[in-house]
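Notebook B, p. 112. Complex prediction, attempt 2.
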Amino acid sequence: MKPASRSFKENAVKALHDDGLQQALGKVRYGFVANRAKARANLPEFETLRDQARAIKEHTLAHLDVYLEEYEKKVVESGGHVHWAPSAADARDIILRLCQDAGAHTVTKGKSMVGEEIGINDHLEAAGIKAVETDLGEYLIQIRHEPPSHIIAPAIHLTKAQVEADFRDRHKDLPQDRILEEPAQLVAEARAVLREQFLAADVGITGANLLIAETGTSVIVTNEGNGDLTQCLPRMHIVIASIEKAVPTLEDACTILRVLARSATGQEFATYNTFSTGPKRPEDPDGPEEYHVVLLDNGRTEMLGGEFHDMLRCIRCGACMNHCPVYGAVGGHAYGWVYPGPMGSVLTPSLIGIDEAGHLPNASTFCGRCESVCPMRIPLPKMMRHWREREFEKGNMPAGFRLGLKLWAFAARRPRLYQTLMGLGMPVMAKLASKKRRFAWLPLAGGWTRHRDLPAPQGKTFQTLWREQNGRQ
Amino acid sequence: MDQTTGPRSDNPRVGLFVTCLVDLFRPSVGFAAIKLIEQSGCRVEVPRGQTCCGQPAYNSGDKADTRAIARATIEAFEPYDYIVAPSGSCAGMLKMHYPDLFGDDPDMGPRAEAFADKVHELISFLVDERGVKNVEARYEGKVTYHDSCAGLRELGVKQQPRILLEGVQGLELDEMEDSEICCGFGGTFSIKYPDISNAIVGKKTANISASGAGCLLAGDLGCLMNMTGKLTREGKSIEARHIAEILAGMTDEPPIGGSGDAQ
Amino acid sequence: MSNSSQRSAVLDAIRLSLGVKEGEKSRETPARKRLERHPHNIVPERARRGAKASISLFNETLEGQGATVNRVKTLAAVPELVAAYLRSNNLPAEFRTGDDNLLAKIPWGKTPSLTRQQGRGQGSDAVTMSRAIAAAAETGTLFLTSGPDNPTTLNFLPDTHIALIRAGDILGSYEDAWNRLRDSYGERSLPRAVNLISGPSRTADIEQVIVMGAHGPRRFFVIIVG
């Protein structure tokens, strides 16, 4: 999809005035956030598991080439195929070719953020292959031609009234008098429509939460069961996964799964954790005849070992965005691309470039809540700061802001000068505010005073007062 | 000041890192901090070679200027046994981030580490380092306390302010909902993304109002200026003060931004 | 680019970033050893409480996740239990199973009102039944393995899914269950699909309201035998 991250500010303002969106975002605190806190409290080992999950990923990344080769070996042994895709375009080509070779007309899709990242649906559609999202949230945004606004709850921005309108508009066989007011009725409608697609599909494409080197297994974690129908009914199952999804063993997978659902939805475990190894065996009555894995790099190898290395530990749980005050204010679409929230603010610039995504690492208060809840202990604020450093080096900063910063820093590096200037300035400012002790407007502070008053200084600076009291030091 | 272990007699030398906002906007917080630190049995000095911790540059990606500011700060404070700041954000910068700035510098790296070891946020310094359990102060009224982000998440400041507030005569602490969620200040963030910052602080002031308290406290002046600036703009008569003012019994100065007399 | 050159491109890029070379024994040996030995990580205390406690934790957790759980002493009691469950939910007394030998041992004939069909799942199935090879009590999770005994489609296509497990197969942790599978399928080898199921299908994609039966079964009925 074409990124809209450049217009983050405008997107954000629009989002702030979208009542439906604000209502939806207001529920995150009582859903995901409260449930995660409960799940964490119910598992005394949670913090230790986080440390261990982090260590597992670090070990894997340090041996990534070895584990990927082992993984590939086991996939091939079980009758599957592994395709290597250095870029998003390579992955699209591989998948399209596989679908064409299978003579596919309809492809069902399980929810896959990598699928969104490479824009696979549009690519297939352009070649005349119908791609149907089957995760309910993904389906809703697909029929609206929208990107996901959350990595685990893609349609979190929608109200049930909007969903009803979309179904009435889109589902031509839907009787006018059918009542579609409650989520349960809407879910039943989607279930009926998508069931036909599941049974008709020639190819099923899913992502993977984990790739296990021990056994050559891909793992998907879902609650709806759509991913399972996507992969066990069609003739071909294609897994699209980025290379950092590898883990060594089933035990290692378990440790990560123990923190994944708890961090994501606050469930102890997702309803369905499915471990898939190769195509259907000779004696099997069901399952795909062909099993393909597309391993995507698309910038990951460049992150490996560098400033953004830690981001490769991300397991896409969404806890960072659920707990982010900025995401909570503007939602996911404002970020303008596939990955929103704090993890997106670090990852998106790596994938589409800092010139395109420059706003994202800047749009953070550095409150640190994302890092404090990240199951993989990814230092998200630190990496957003790294992006700001790169931007500063490149000069990607409004000229006025840069000049102001430089002038301030010039003074801040020279304590005597700084104290003299401020010692003169602050009493003047205090006088200007007079008895109100605050400013409703100040030149150059419009960003602040548009929404808030600026408290006025008390008068003389502390340094002045201190020197007056203690004699000249 | 009552300390269950008795006043510590080591009489260490504390360098007060005033912080730029206290220096410029609210010197009374600096004096309150000095009073509290002295009461805990320390000598306090205010080195002149300080300006700001450097966060505006650091968080804007300007590492060279940040390093220069950090180097000057470290040099100014090296002689002291402790470095104490009445701000979790600034103390977090000095303690958690200065060492990162000089990671591979053979001279400054170890000096930054040694410096960082001595840095404390004011309230946690009193409770954790000096063993203060109670202060002799009086404040009639209901207050609510905002946990500023860096203090809370970088330095673990959570119970310490509550322990000391409990000992203030006449004071009742009414916790607001989501006291641990950011107020939307974020330094330059509030200027660069004013509309988002406004939305975040709007949720905060709603929680502050709902707490029923007449006074908002926090350990960081930046957050306080943001929240009280919003409260006065909304016409709410809730005053805002730095927690040190209450603990030191220094509430003669009008509240921040004249809040509390809005109506 | 061919697959082999794309493969080299990715692997070479990894090695370049890690600053390593292909075939370094000091890296390959510990990695391969980890795969062979698959050492345990931390297993939560709740998953190490012994058989009796595991069964009650399993029961409690699974019910908390929206499943119905019942326990009977013998296989002979299963048909009546199934018939009663289907009746109470106004469901047809008809269901499908695979070729599982334990399910085959159940004296279905004693309850003639029940009709058991066999084979893989069909889109038209209202009720199906499978047998779980193991369960992990820590999160009320059943392990179901693919194959002619218990075709995977039975787990996902029907409205109502019944899973049977022997009490002795309810273990504490996921790790215990994987070891049970390793005993059956060998080291570094798994059946095509292993489904870890912890309740009925659900979604919260519309206004964060939980609705059961998104695409998979609306009802999940678990029978513990023994």
